[in-house]
């Protein structure tokens, strides 16, 4: 299926999903419980619920294109904003309830708690009216849009793959390929390749092929085999991001070889000298995974310390682009990844779909027949085979398998990936969409990500009975199990994960209703290195990732994002905020729920900037880099104990509570995690 078709289908799936998600249901129930008798018992709520269900069915089955898609997209943005507005109002009411409870512990009256913020409560009826009007408008719009003749539900019931029962990764039909590449790494230098008398001690070999063809899996198998024979003294695996920095990758190289953590690169030359010392007279194998088109000078600078190694050292590259391997990296040996033979491909598919399944023999024979036909539709893509098979493994109903076989969406890798994504429950998809805020190959930590999802309210369920951390860990395990998220080579002190590039391709390039930075009105925005652009529709942006920062950008654009919920600054950002700018941020952007920033702490300053009136704040991570290079114990401002919604706090410096608020710590009733140096 082509990108335009996936976008058309995807619009309905995405809109339908969040319309009836547990979060929306809980939002409406909470709204009407606060308004009470002002809105005629619960009849209006039931009417809205009924309308949302009808709207969901219409959105799932609608065929959208051209002008219709533009109109519906505009309506969906308005509806999304209306839900956000209701949520903010309810959050403000909750904040004042918490404040009232903190001040009047002895008084348990819910009514009294509501009365503390009449302004927020007064905004709720008009916000609900706006929501209802937009739901009615949506029904009218969709009634004019073409529906399929049979009006069959376009999606299967969402499922979550059972992480504990998935078979391990396995390599099929690649044994000869593994041995071929190993011979490339062990062969003596040919004419024109580096030898004992040449400047470089290493030569470059490359695996290249289409996305999802199994390049990384093949390279991993080669890497593991080489570990066993210990032909190379040093072995390092590096994932190369699309817009990598020399400092970041050099730091990874140093950490991988030395086993020592390298948080901040203040002097690249010094770090490169240390890396040269570590590699001197050692034969190394360096795998550079998923290299994109990049500046030759950056690569030359990055690889310059490697000349200290011993003769016979190798760099193995995986890339989508043959010209990158040949022209940019100077690869002397190229391995275009071949297709897996059909019988091996089907065997791989059935391994992930049925290995260890407990159904009866007759049932499994039926699954095997249908499974073979599904596998043939996937056009030999190992990535697609694993994703689709694991999702089918979670639902062994043979009718579900037959319906899946009849889906045109499965033709090819990207269609299969999109199908796998849409099988997830809406709150799980929402968690994954949030990850797309981060750049390609950005290093994520599991607990940090779960804490961010908690702060955004993605992990709430309709009942609220289950612990939200457990829900978050389950979501993460689903992504890991289905290869949406990949574990990264890690040291003993920390484990990182990255989003698979194909999912960035899907949600950025193939899905214009989700992608980052492409369409005005999108929730997510990244300020990327080397890209100067105006942030479109400031009132729509709610989640901001900053790779590149300057004062002009802060004053003219960031401070205009009045509905911003997340501001996340990358650790690689060279220019960071001042104390005054951080205080302005807290003062002006009052809907923030997540703040993760780095700022300069002036010499002699011992207080963290005042937080202002951040009623919604749940996640606060601040890293004060002192301009004099000396860290001191910082004092949290008095307002800190008024952050009643706060769940997670992290500060890289030692900190203490302000003397006047020391006794008020007990008011932080939602605080779960406090981290320090």
Description:
By secondary structure, this protein is an alpha/beta fold. It folds into 4 domains: 3-155, no CATH class; 163-169 and 340-422; 175-336, Rossmann fold (3-Layer(aba) Sandwich); 516-675, Leucine-rich repeat, LRR (right-handed beta-alpha superhelix). It is 45% helix and 12% strand. The protein contains 23 helices and 17 strands. Strands 8, 9, 10, 11, 12, 13, 15 and 17 form an 8-stranded parallel sheet that branches. Strand 3 (284-291), helix 11 (296-303) and strand 4 form a beta-alpha-beta unit. It is globular. The protein starts with a helix and ends with a strand. It comes from Panicum miliaceum. This is Disease resistance protein RGA2.
Q: What distinguishing features does this structure have?
A:
677 residues; alpha/beta; Rossmann fold; 4 domains; 8-stranded parallel sheet; 5-stranded parallel sheet; 23 helices; globular; disordered N terminus; plant defense; ADP binding; Rx_N; Disease_R_plants
Q: Uncertain regions: pLDDT < 50 for 5+ in a row? A: 1-13, 37-41, 63-67, 109-114, 148-164, 511-515
The domain count comes to 4
CATH topology of the largest domain: Rossmann fold
Which structural class is indicated by helix and strand composition?
A: alpha/beta
| Total helical elements | 23
Give the biggest beta sheet: 8 strands, parallel
CATH-defined superfamily of the largest domain = P-loop containing nucleotide triphosphate hydrolases
What is the typical, i.e. mean, pLDDT?
Answer: 78
**CATH level 1 class label of the largest domain:** Alpha Beta
Number of strands: 17
Share of helical residues: 40-55%
DSSP strand (E) fraction? Answer: 5-15%
For this structure, the quaternary state is single chain
CATH architecture of the largest domain: 3-Layer(aba) Sandwich
- Shape summary: globular
GO biological process, one term: defense response to other organism
Family: Belongs to the disease resistance NB-LRR family.
Protein name: Disease resistance protein RGA2
GO molecular function: ADP binding
């Amino acid at each position: 299926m082509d990108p335009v078709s996936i976008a058309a289908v995807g619009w309905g799936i995405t809109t339908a999903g969040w319309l009836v998600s547990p979060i929306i249901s809980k939002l409406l129930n909470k709204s009407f419980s606060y308004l009470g008798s002002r809105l005629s018992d619960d009849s209006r709520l039931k009417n809205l619920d009924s309308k949302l269900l009808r709207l969901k069915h219409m959105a799932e089955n609608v065929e959208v294109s051209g002008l219709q898609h533009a109109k519906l997209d505009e309506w969906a943005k308005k509806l999304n904003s209306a839900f956000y507005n209701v949520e903010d109002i309810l959050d403000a009411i909750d904040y004042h309830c918490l404040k009232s409870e903190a001040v009047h512990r002895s008084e348990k009256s819910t009514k009294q708690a509501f009365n503390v913020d009449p302004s927020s409560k007064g905004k709720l009826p008009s916000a609900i009216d706006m929501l209802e009007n937009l739901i009615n408008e949506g029904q009218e719009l969709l009634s004019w849009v073409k529906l399929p003749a049979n009006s069959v539900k376009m999606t299967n019931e969402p499922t979550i793959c059972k992480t504990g029962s998935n078979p391990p990764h396995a390599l099929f039909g690649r044994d000869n390929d593994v041995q071929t590449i190993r011979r490339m790494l062990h062969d003596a230098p040919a004419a024109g390749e580096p030898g004992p008398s040449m400047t470089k001690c290493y030569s470059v070999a490359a695996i290249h092929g289409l996305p999802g063809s199994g390049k990384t899996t093949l390279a991993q198998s080669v890497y593991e085999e080489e570990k066993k024979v210990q032909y190379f003294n040093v072995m390092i695996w590096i994932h190369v991001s699309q817009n990598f920095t020399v400092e970041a990758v050099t730091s990874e190289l140093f950490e991988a070889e030395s086993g020592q953590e390298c948080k901040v690169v203040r002097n690249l030359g010094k770090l490169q000298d240390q890396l040269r010392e570590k590699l001197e007279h050692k034969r190394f194998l360096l795998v550079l995974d998923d290299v994109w088109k990049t500046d030759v000078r950056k690569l030359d600078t990055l690889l310059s310390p490697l000349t200290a190694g011993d003769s016979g050292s190798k760099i193995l590259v995986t890339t989508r682009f043959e010209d990158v391997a040949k022209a940019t990296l100077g690869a002397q040996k190229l391995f275009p990844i071949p297709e897996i033979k059909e019988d091996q491909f089907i065997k791989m598919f059935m391994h992930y779909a049925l290995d260890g399944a407990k159904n009866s023999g007759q049932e499994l024979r039926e699954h095997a027949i249908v499974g073979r036909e599904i596998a043939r539709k996937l056009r030999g893509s190992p990535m697609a085979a694993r994703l689709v098979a694991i999702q089918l493994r979670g639902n062994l109903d043979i009718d579900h398998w037959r319906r899946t076989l009849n889906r045109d969406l499965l033709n090819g890798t990207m269609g299969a990936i999109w199908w796998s994504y849409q099988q997830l429950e809406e709150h799980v998809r929402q968690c994954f969409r949030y990850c797309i805020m981060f750049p390609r190959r950005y290093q994520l930590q599991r607990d940090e990500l779960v804490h961010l999802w908690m702060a955004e309210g993605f992990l709430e369920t309709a009942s609220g009975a289950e612990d939200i951390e457990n829900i978050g860990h389950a979501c993460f395990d689903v992504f890991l199990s289905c290869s949406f998220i990949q574990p990264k080579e890690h040291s003993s002190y920390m484990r990182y994960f990255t989003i698979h590039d194909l999912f960035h391709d899907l949600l950025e390039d193939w899905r214009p209703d989700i992608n980052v930075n492409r369409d005005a009105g999108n929730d997510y925005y990244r300020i990327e290195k080397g890209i100067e652009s105006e942030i479109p529709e400031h009132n729509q942006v709610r989640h901001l990732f900053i790779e590149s920062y300057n004062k002009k950008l802060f004053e003219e654009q960031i401070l205009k994002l009045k509905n911003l919920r997340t501001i996340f600054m990358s650790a690689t950002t060279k220019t960071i905020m001042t104390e005054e700018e951080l205080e302005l941020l807290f003062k002006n952007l009052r809907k923030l729920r997540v703040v993760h920033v780095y700022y300069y702490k002036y010499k002699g300053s011992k207080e963290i900037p005042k937080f202002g009136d951040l009623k919604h704040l749940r996640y606060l991570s601040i890293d004060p880099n002192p301009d004099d290079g000396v860290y001191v114990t910082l004092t949290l401002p008095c307002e800190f104990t008024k952050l009643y919604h706060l769940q997670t706090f992290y500060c890289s410096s030692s900190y203490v509570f302000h003397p006047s608020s020391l006794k008020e710590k007990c008011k932080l009733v939602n605080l779960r995690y406090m981290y320090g140096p």
